[in-house]
Structures are given as structure tokens and as C-alpha cells.
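G., before I forget:
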Amino acid sequence: MTLRAFEPDQTDWRLLAELQADGRLSFNELARRVHLSAPSVAERVRRLEQAGIITGYAARVDAARAGQPVLVYIQLRCMLNKCLLRTTRAEDYPEIVEVHKLSGEYCTMLKARATSLAHLEGFVERLGLLGEMRTHIVLSTAYQDRPVTEPSPDRPVTPSQGWTRT
Amino acid sequence: MTLRAFEPDQTDWRLLAELQADGRLSFNELARRVHLSAPSVAERVRRLEQAGIITGYAARVDAARAGQPVLVYIQLRCMLNKCLLRTTRAEDYPEIVEVHKLSGEYCTMLKARATSLAHLEGFVERLGLLGEMRTHIVLSTAYQDRPVTEPSPDRPVTPSQGWTRT
DNA sequence: AATGAAAAAACTCCTGT
DNA sequence: ACAGGAGTTTTTTCATT
């Protein structure tokens, strides 16, 4: 698969919006919605896939209903050369959903799910071996999975008083 | 749509795994993979949808390739009754991808995307009006979008020394 | 990029076990 | 609750303009 870079146009963005809302739309249905023919739509979607903009299609699963109602963010301050990223694989912890390397004092941000607070307790204790951490339990989620849309042109930035942006 | 609770069995979990990996698999193909007939699979998938376990299907979009390479987590400590959740709608900030209400001192965790650091600067300044905040820039992402799998039975938890779990 | 037609595949219903 | 088959509809793809 060759990744050819290219700029999505307005129609591509409409297709991306539709497919993020319903990834199982047929080319026919998509064509109706963006007022194009099915073959045209098929070619555009292929281009988006080959450019690596569309990376795949997935069923969305409600983790809470699937038995994992506890969501946490954990910030890790790893010992030197003892980072979770170096010593262990995140795949070994089935609770871990995301691993990000951060700027700042706490080098790693984890997102994890557990079946219960008891489960979370055990998980955190296992993790604790890796370094100092801060755990943030999510009480509720107000907003989730905003689809990727066309970046609006940067709004004018107010320079900090007395400073000039370079 | 009536939400009937029910427990997914082993076969349901296999279907969930397949559909999270490829949300566009047909019932025929799914049937082949889990060694069932297409009608049986169709019925199971419907049940998963009606139970609210499968909430939908979506194309996955690479935000970086789509023009938004900057990812940040922001913790907000809101003034009383001036929480982002109360005064403004997250939808008004197109940069915001997720909003979680947290336990602890910082009441809100945001996930946001920007097109550039200049754009991020402007966004953070706009947000700053809402309260004190901590911004964490993601340098790289090591792991992402782990599919929801069957919760393994809770491992035995090591009680903290001198304490009994209740 | 659109049209139209042909080919392929998907879904669903029904029946039987 | 599942398997198998037939029939219908939809989808995809190709060739052409």
C-alpha cells in the first residue's frame, strides 16, 4: 500500500463525515448523500484509504455495557530507563487502552478500563512498580469521539502582552 | 429501541473482536470466521446492537494525516459553577475531542486536537478564561484503541499491608 | 465524473432439525 | 437455537461517453 499524500477537498470531507457517522454506508447511499455517482464515490474513498486518512472501519463498543464501567487516566512519572514503554509492553496489561508519551514531568499518560473498583485497585498496584503515578477516575463522560473534520483556518491569535510571536 | 440487558457468550465476544477489527464484515464472512451460519450471526449481531453493546460503526480517521497533528490532554480546575460543562458547550470548541468529569482537584479532563502549535496557543488562550488548567502535549502515541474484550476474571488483589478490604 | 448494464454478493425468509 | 437453501434486493464494477 503506497501512501500518497493529497489534500481532501470539500467533497472528501463530506464523505469523511458520513463514514465516521456510519462506517457501513454503501457507495450507493454515499453517492446519494453527496450528490455524486457511485463510481466517483468509490474512487474517492479508495484514495482516502490509500492516503492513510481512512485507516479502517470498526464497530463501536460501549465498554460500560460490555462489563468495563470503570475508566481512568493515569499519569506515570517513570524512573529513568524504567518507563513502561521500555521495560514492559502495554499489551501485557489488558486494562490499558491507550499509551501516550508526554512532555512534562509525568512522562506517560495511560487510559485504562476496569470491571470494578476492586479490579482497578489490583491493576494500580501492579502498575505501581513502574514508578510514581497520579490516577484520575472518570466520574462521567460528557463528550466523546468527536469526528475529525476539516481544520478551520487558524483564528487570529492574541499575542501575550509585551511579547511578539515568532 | 428497547435496551435489553444480557450477557455476551464466547461466540458474541468473538464477533465483537472481529467487528472491532473490521466493522464492514458481512454476515457471511463473519459466519465463516466463527463457524456459524449467516442467519445465526445476524441475530447475534442484532442482539448486541439492541443491548447497546454495539453502538454503531465508524470509519477510523488518522487525525494527523487529516491535518491535525497536535494532540493534547488538558486538565481544568474550574471555578465554582463556572465549569466548562455548565457555562459553555464543548461543541463550541471544535478542537475538543473528549470531555470527562473527574474526581480530584482538577474537575475536568479534555482531549483536544490542533493543526499547529500556533493554533494550540490560540485555543488554550480561549480556554483559559474558564479556569486554571494544566496542558499536556502528546509527543507520541505508543498504543491506541485497544478493542474491548471479555473482562478476565478479577485477579486476586493484594490487600494493602495491615488493612482488610471491605 | 456520469450512465447503464452485467456480475457478484449480501440479506432475509422459510423450513427442517 | 442453529443450519441450509431459494429468492430477492442491493452493491460493486466495468465499459463507454
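The beta strands of chain A are 54-61, 70-78, 96-102, 108-114, 131-143. The first strand of chain A starts at residue 54 and ends at 61.

More on Monday.
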